[in-house]
Specification:
The chain has five helices and two strands; from the N terminus they run ααβαβαα. The chain is mainly alpha-helical and about 140 residues long. A two-stranded parallel ribbon has the order 1-2. It is globular.
């Protein structure tokens, strides 16, 4: 994922709410540096440092998918004073551990293959993924 995917949503929210909206790339995503460890507590600390660096208060922290787990870890880990977070919005993820589906494993394999091919365009990657989906029995019930 990348914060660029949220640009139009962030702008719309900023305009509607008349307040600044920040989109962050978590470590190893988008324009963020690649760093270890890549754990939820460490990524929560990264978010905490951003909030502290910008002296943000009474914020609405929104997280999507893995970012949702990072947002929950930030709040539940008590990395910040309670008054810092006014609202927590978590989309498309639950605060549980679960098994990875066969379909997900198949997509991970496809992404590894695409990465190894050193493709130049998203279209090339979509074409490889489309072929992978046709050939993968775990994606065709």
């Amino acid at each position: 994922g990348s914060k660029r995917n949220w640009h139009s949503v962030a702008n719309a929210l900023s305009n509607e709410l008349n307040r600044p909206v920040y989109a962050l790339d978590l470590r190893n995503h988008g324009e963020s540096p690649h760093a270890r460890p890549m754990t939820y507590p460490q990524m929560a600390l990264d978010v905490t440092h951003f909030i502290q660096k910008h002296n943000l208060e009474r914020i609405s922290l929104v997280g999507h998918s893995m970012g949702g787990k990072v947002a929950m870890t930030t709040v539940l880990g008590r990395y910040l004073p309670p008054s810092t977070i006014a609202n927590l919005v978590v989309a498309d993820i639950a605060p549980i551990k679960g098994k990875v589906s066969r379909a997900s494993v198949s997509y991970f394999e496809a992404m590894k293959k695409i990465e190894s091919m050193k493709l130049k365009t998203k279209k090339e990657a979509r074409n490889v993924l489309a072929e992978w989906e046709k050939a993968s029995p775990s994606l065709n019930p």
